[in-house]
Amino acid sequence: MPKRILQGTVTSTANKQTVTVQVVRRFKHPVLQKTIKKSKKYRAHDENEQFNVGESVLIRECAPKSKTKRWEVMTETMLEEHNKQRAEAAAEAQKLEEAAHEAEAAH
């Protein structure tokens, strides 16, 4: 199962190697059709303590690091790796789609 990635803003750096990230999501209410804004705070692991309050960060799911930490802040190397994997998956999907079109054209 792929790891979820969320984008949020750092709201606290009070603890060592931990940042609190507030993630805001917007959705349309199913009955009222009104746009609603909900927020949730996640505690994420920040190994090098490189992020400060107010910065926008990406966090991804990971194995539990402590009682409350289930997320880790994505560093530059993690982002590069993630983008590389996405590009490879897109290329693979393109090849499969082209093969399906060729097979359909052959019939």
TrEMBL record:
For whether the record's keyword set contains RNA-binding, the answer is yes
Any single GO CC term annotated in Swiss-Prot or TrEMBL for this entry: cytosolic small ribosomal subunit
Name any one GO molecular function. structural constituent of ribosome
Q: Which UniProt keywords apply?
A: Ribonucleoprotein, Ribosomal protein, RNA-binding, rRNA-binding
Its biological purpose: One of the primary rRNA binding proteins, it binds specifically to the 5'-end of 16S ribosomal RNA.
The protein's assembly and partners: Part of the 30S ribosomal subunit.
This protein's name: Small ribosomal subunit protein uS17
According to its UniProt entry, this protein's organism is Sagittula stellata (strain ATCC 700073 / DSM 11524 / E-37)
